[in-house]
Amino acid sequence: MSTTSASLLERIRHDPAASQWQTLVELYDPLIRGWLKRQSVLQADADDLVQDVLTVVARRLKDFEHNGRTGAFRTWLRTVTINCVRDSWRSKKRENANQGQVQELLDQLTDPNSGLTQAWDLEHDRYVTQQLLGRLRSEFEPATWKAFERVALDGTPAAQVATELGLTVNAVFIAKSRILARLRQESRGLIDD
């Protein structure tokens, strides 16, 4: 994992190296696939749709503009997914009972205030955060990571963590701060605070 100041999205847009794209695919393939599965999309259709979504992302990411909007990438990805599902259903001319369900699903996802859209956004942010944390772990010493994990993720008081790990309270706060700063750096544009 690069420790440059650029986020993953910025690195891909400015230098679309295969390794950076692979990281994006590893982040988003399981997320999109899981979401499609929960919406009862057949496995074969889900495979095609995931490939379609990632192909569109690869082609159009250079044109994506975040412009400081909260949730811009997440919303853009959701829109790409909606359009791929819609195009797939249109091209297959599905004239069965599921057509109404699919249209209702797409309508809900188009509405930024719907429960389904809010669930998509929450799932996206949680999933991407977990994946990025997993990738960042190797950049830090085990004691630093443990201090961060106990304070930031488990909610353990810093004084207790300091005692458990033989660190100062200040060292625990520094560990938390360093890892959160690195996470914010890497996730810039992907997830929003």
From TrEMBL:
Keyword Iron included in the entry's annotation: no
Signal peptide feature range: none
Domain of life: Bacteria
Residues in RNA polymerase sigma-70 region domain copies: 24-94
GO biological process, alphabetically ordered: DNA-templated transcription initiation
Database matches in SUPFAM superfamilies: Sigma2 domain of RNA polymerase sigma factors (SSF88946)
Keyword set, alphabetical order: DNA-binding, Sigma factor, Transcription, Transcription regulation
MF GO annotations: DNA binding; sigma factor activity
Keyword DNA-binding appears in the UniProt entry: yes
InterPro entries assigned to the protein according to its UniProt record, in alphabetical order: RNA_pol_sigma-70-like, RNA_pol_sigma-70_dom, RNA_pol_sigma70_r2, RNA_pol_sigma_r2
Record PANTHER family: RNA POLYMERASE ECF-TYPE SIGMA FACTO, RNA POLYMERASE SIGMA FACTOR HI_1459-RELATED
Identification of the protein by name: RNA polymerase sigma factor
The organism of origin for this protein: Anatilimnocola aggregata
